[in-house]
Amino acid sequence: MSPINEQRLDRELKKGSAELLILSLLEARARHGYEIRKLIETRSDGVLKFNAASLYPLLYRLEKRGWIEGKWVEKAGQRRRRFYKLTKDGRKVLAAQRGIWESFVAAINRVARPENA
Amino acid sequence: MPDWKPHIRQRLARLQIAPTREQAIVEELAQHLDDCYAESLSSGATEAEAYQRAVAELSGKELLARELQRVERQVAPEPLIHGTNRRINMVADMWQDLRFGARTLLKQPGFTLIAVLTLALGIGANTAIFTVVNALLLRPLPYRQPEQLVKVFRTPPDPTKGMLPSIWSYPRFEMLRRQNRSFTQVAGFNQSPYNLTGTDAPEQLWMEMASDGYFPLLGVNTIVGRTFTAEDAGEVALLGYGLWQRRYGGDPQVVGRTIELDKLAFTIVGVLPPGFRGQSGTADVWLPMMAAPRFVRTILTDPDDHWFQVIARLKDGVALAQAQAEMQQVSAEIEQKYPSPPDTVPGNAKVPVLEPFQSAKVDPALKTSFLLLLAAVGLALLIACANVANLLLARAAARRREFALRAALGASRLRLLRQLITESLLLSMVGGAFGVLLARWGVPLLMSIRPRDNTQFWTSYSHTFDFFTVNLDWRVLGFNFALALLTGLLFGLLPALQSSFININEALKEGAGGSGAGFHGPRKLSVRNVLVGGEIALSLALLVGAGLMINSLLRLQSVNLGFAPENLLTMTVYSRDAKPEFYEQALERVQALPGVEAASFSRNTPLLGRYARAVIDIEGRADINRAGVGFHSVSPDYFKTLGIALLRGRVFTAQDRVGAPRVALLNQAAAEKFFPGEDPIGKRIRPYVTPKYQTAEPYIEIVGVVADVPYGRLEEGAAPDLYVSALQPTDQMRMLTVRSGIDTAALTAAVQREVLRLDRNIPLTAIQTMKERVADVTSRTRFIAVLLGAFAGLALVLAGIGVYGVMAYSVSARTREIGIRLALGAQPSDVRNLVIGQGMRLALVGIAAGLLTAFAVTRLLRTVLFGVSATDPPTFAGIALLLICVALTACWIPARRATKVDPIIALRSE
Question: Which residue has the higher pLDDT, B16 or B832?
Answer without folding.
Answer: B832
